[in-house]
Amino acid sequence: YPRQHALETQLSEFNLTAIEAMLGSYTKVLFVRDPFQRLISTFMQGMGSSPSFSSFVQDVLDSGQHKASVTSKPLVSLCRPCLVQYDYVVMFGFLRQELGHLLRRTGLPVDSLLPEFTDTQVRQTYSWLSEQMFSELSLQQKQQLSHFYRWDLSAFPFSSSFLSD
């Protein structure tokens, strides 16, 4: 798409015709991750200044969906998967398999561009970590988180998410 804007320009600043033209000219890839794992990652990276995971989760819940930070907002509110026709949706935890497929489909050399991923170890670690962190939360927090991320849980196949129940 012809570049008629600065790099910082948000898509929402264009009219609908320009947005459709831009989106139609790109291969659109959406990387998604279980919302509970995103919360854990944000907490572990120190982006939450709370002393415990439970208090961090409460801060996220108290902020609400509109005032939540980008790292804790539901993906559906950030990426608009119901409005944008993504060409590929890549799930965290299956990166090696899905990126290999994506690179092959786009005609790029797979072996030279694909870094080493240890998806199995990542999934096992996050499964264990999710279990530990989930046990710290009250029943009310668990229910509120499931409600907070309900649209993500409906839009993407996070069947093993702790928030799915």
From TrEMBL:
<dbReference type="GO" id="GO:0000139">
    <property type="term" value="C:Golgi membrane"/>
</dbReference>
<keyword id="KW-0333">Golgi apparatus</keyword>
<dbReference type="GO" id="GO:0050655">
    <property type="term" value="P:dermatan sulfate proteoglycan metabolic process"/>
</dbReference>
<keyword id="KW-0472">Membrane</keyword>
<keyword id="KW-0119">Carbohydrate metabolism</keyword>
<dbReference type="InterPro" id="IPR005331">
    <property type="entry name" value="Sulfotransferase"/>
</dbReference>
<dbReference type="Pfam" id="PF03567">
    <property type="entry name" value="Sulfotransfer_2"/>
</dbReference>
<comment type="similarity">
    <text>Belongs to the sulfotransferase 2 family.</text>
</comment>
<protein>
    <recommendedName>
        <fullName>Carbohydrate sulfotransferase</fullName>
        <ecNumber>2.8.2.-</ecNumber>
    </recommendedName>
</protein>
<dbReference type="GO" id="GO:0016051">
    <property type="term" value="P:carbohydrate biosynthetic process"/>
</dbReference>
<keyword id="KW-0808">Transferase</keyword>
<keyword id="KW-0735">Signal-anchor</keyword>
<keyword id="KW-1133">Transmembrane helix</keyword>
<keyword id="KW-0325">Glycoprotein</keyword>
<keyword id="KW-0812">Transmembrane</keyword>
<dbReference type="InterPro" id="IPR018011">
    <property type="entry name" value="Carb_sulfotrans_8-10"/>
</dbReference>
<dbReference type="GO" id="GO:0008146">
    <property type="term" value="F:sulfotransferase activity"/>
</dbReference>
